[in-house]
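#struct-queue
[09:14] JT: dropping the first one here, sequence first, then the structure tokens:
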Amino acid sequence: MIDLHQRYGKLVRTGPNEVSVSDLAAIKKIYGPGTKFRKSSWYGVFQGHRKFDLFAEQDERIHSSQRRLVSSIYSENSLKDLEKYVDDAVMHFMAKMSGMQGQGVDMGLWVQLFAFDVIGELTFSKRFGFMDAGKDDGSFAQIDTAMASGAWLGQIPALYWAHDYLMPLLGNHLGVNARHGNMRNYVSRELEDRKNRGSDHQDILGKLFQVQKEKPKRDERHGRALDGNKQHLCWSLPRVIPPEGIEIDGRYIPKGTIIGANPWVVHRNTEVFGQDCEKFRPERWLTDNNGNMGIEPVF
């Protein structure tokens, strides 16, 4: 996609009714607050039959209602309560790195192990133990399979729903269903374990339990929220252009067209990250001469 945008510009037609965009102003309009651009049917593949899914819910009214249930828990002040537990995980990670001095280290793997242990600590009051083991428990492969499967099925959602209809007869043959099955079951087990053992310090589940206690009429939706899990994706996150259409880079795109911005493309945009956007240069974040990064947030 990066090569295509470099060749054709800010708009690239990726299908009969789908366009990829890298125009920064358009991206803000598509994904920004109060947007009229709704999620496309691509998301249905990831939601399946689940009633509570903040990532995949396409109905804006339902999504807003679901978001209100958990928004206070993820506020800045609320997250500050958990900062020290992130610090503990960081120190553990640094100790592991120190113990491997002089060895070749797969940093891509270790950063992921670290991230999952942080998620475990913040959500369930215990790390998953991935950094201690130096490996995961098979979850990474399941997630990769689910994401790869969902990526292409989202382009043909009818195929997913046909498979869903026939699954009682044929069984499951789609990796994306791990998100609705194995991975969800894993989170549910961790949830029950956390309920049974309690915690000696605050965590995200503790905050969710408290909100659930304060708002018992929303018990059913909160139960679904507690079962939920998030995946961070690097896809175009497609939206449907509203009735008035949109003009981008001098071209009018009509209503009903699917449009999205690919993060890989945006994150190598020289307007945002400077002319050396392809270079590994962490100090770019600490200088004033860093393109447009600190002036105009894209999302």
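[09:21] JT: and here's the second one, same format:
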Amino acid sequence: MEAVSASSLDSDLSNQAQDALKGALDDILEQYLDLVHRYTSLHQSMAEDFASGFLSLARANFSNHSRLRYGQDFYDDRMQALTSFYINPSEDESPHSSDLEQLLQDTISVTTIQPVSQNLEVEQSMVKGDPAELETDSVSEHSIADPLNWFGILVPQALRASQSSFKHAVTETVPLLANLSNEMKRMEINIRRMRKKIRKMG
């Protein structure tokens, strides 16, 4: 009789643990679906930004009455990046985590340098400066001209709108998408582990 009671108690505890795992799995799946919704919305927003950027660029070229075409043919070869992406390593390093799990815990941040829109000294140095000297000198925040100035001072509004759309997609949406993607992959690992535990208990 005591053996039967002990067996029944173990079975009840096992069922309670399995129900707890199933409840936790349901919570994680709900969070995962919320991340999928946010990821899809951000992906659509990024697509709209790029589409708007290319459309504004096409409008700027269509309304341009000079022979100058707004595009990479007139890029300054000495250009410097205004936006940089950095991977911030996670401080939570578990001894049992794999390299992939540790990589997925990292986050991406963005650093943007505000360009100088109207600075005659900068513009003259970008055009008349010695290329060898410009390559050896370190570039400070105040020595990077706005890329729109490559095409002159009075650029059309459509070209500015194109730059704004591309900048928003790169500096705002892309980092969020990358971090959400990592978060979703971490959840997928946890979901597989919890399902494996539930199968073993069943």
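[09:30] RK: nice, looked through the second one.
[09:31] RK: The helical segments are 2-62, 99-104, 120-128, 131-136, 157-201.
[09:31] JT: good to know. The beta strands are 83-88, 107-112.
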